[in-house]
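Please, is this right?
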Amino acid sequence: MKHFFVFFILLSANLFAQIPTEPKVPAVKDVFFNQKTNTTEQGEKVKLIHADTFGIVKGKYDDNPFFSGNVQFFHQGSTLTADEVIFYREQNFVKALGNVKLQNADGSVITSGEMEYDGNTQKGIARKNVVLTDPGQTIKTETLYYDRLSNNAYFNTGGTIAKDGNVMYTKAANYDLANRLIDFTGNVKIDNPEYTVDGVNIIQNQNTNTATFNGPTTITNKKNPSNLIYTEKGTYNMNSKEVYLKKNSRINYNGKILTGDDLYFNQITGFGKGKGNVTLRDPQEKRYMKGGYGEIYEKKDSAMMTEKPYAVKILEKDSMYFSAERILAYQKIDDQNPLKKKSFLRAYKKSRMFKSNIQVRADSLSFNETDGIMHLDGKPIAWSGEKQITGDKIEAYFDTENEFIDSLRVIGNAFAISKADSLNMKDEFNQVKGKLMNVYYKQNEINLAKVIGNAQAITYADDQNEKTKEVERIGVALSTCGTIEALFEDRKVQIISCNIGANTDIYPMSQISREKRFFPDFNWNTKDRLKTWKDIFLDSPGYEATVYEADDALFNAAQKSIDDAKAKEEAKKPKRVRK
């Protein structure tokens, strides 16, 4: 294209010297030519190859000289052909009409219905079905403007640019020939065999084959239109198919939506990442994840979140909140049904989960969202109401359809603690422990615990006074069995089964010391328990430890009576006197 407009300058310089006639009527120029220029350069002469006729016809072309009939000129490897060429000598202005074609030495070609060039301003216009082709690229529009000084070309009549399998549609475009930058504005669309791009302003660098997006822009996958990328500021490498997003951006893939301050996505590998206020939403799983940094793996259908991450499983009645140092979410093919996928959530290091009827802490957490199975490892602890459960490992089973917890399985050093009476502040706790424990829920409350292997229990026994109808404490039962079944009901724990080497001793409150009412590894943890969902973000909520009243009055009184009786007996004994 550059040679084309240089050619017109040289053409006017040569022919003005050859044509004696002075036209009196000036050319009517487009306003595009009105801008003044300081240049006076005329350029080298060009060579006329052929013209059927040449002259001036009164009344034709405002009495200006013209060539007509298969006009052909040549200059430095560039060839111009047209039906007619007109010269406005006083204005240093030239116009080519009919089947205009410019063949340049660099292989570029411009065809149009007509062309104009002003030798003073060094600006040109090609009109009517303009087609510019150069190696690998074709530009089509109705009117193409060119400024030789700035080496820019532009159109505002709507047009298309086809390159490397991409077709770009735009209302207007400005082409910086020196840097090979095309600035598209006004309802821009890029059509690719694999995707489409729609935006309001796209700048394409043809040297690097990258596009810069300014304003709302959407990249849509043709095979799966629900997979799309949206941004209001970003860049796209069309070779590597990598996109960098900087403002109000989102990546939609596999039914999920990734947002963040800065996003990156590779359409070939399916890898993406986000920095700053990253959120990954999964409407199908009714879950979203947030963090300071996140990664997605489209082909593996997995994601990872770090930097104070947390996840929320949205349930109709009672949502679940997760946190850890690192959270993973992924899907796997169902072993039983290859047509279905199962969803999983994993949280590593300092994992937390809050639900109104159960709260957990562990070093790591794995949750099968589809089947409702949660695995807790690394000093796990779970709270439900006024009950606490610990062990080496804990498995929690949820009813995903009805959205409540069904049961717990505790493996290794299983220990369940329940406040004997949550309405008072006495240090009375029912305790059940053993190697393995299954805990069953009823209406989201712990109902039954089955312990297998070295089962032990410390339970408080109450009875109702027939006269006063008040509940009175009878004593404490110490049980050791191979297996124990304990029923949790109405703030009480009742041993309903004690088998295999069963042994149970019941002590009145006056005959059991405080030390015997607690197992050695007893640890009722009120400091670390999660009371609200926001506690998941803390290593420990650090609540003030609850202080309970010692319930040793009867035992101390009994001991005092025993001690007093012993003292009296000792006083009755004769005392030895040394002589």
User: Anything to note?
Assistant: Residues 77 and 105 are 5 Å apart (CA to CA). Confidence is low (pLDDT under 50) at residues 1-21. The two ends are 138 Å apart (CA to CA). The helical segments are 2-16, 553-572.
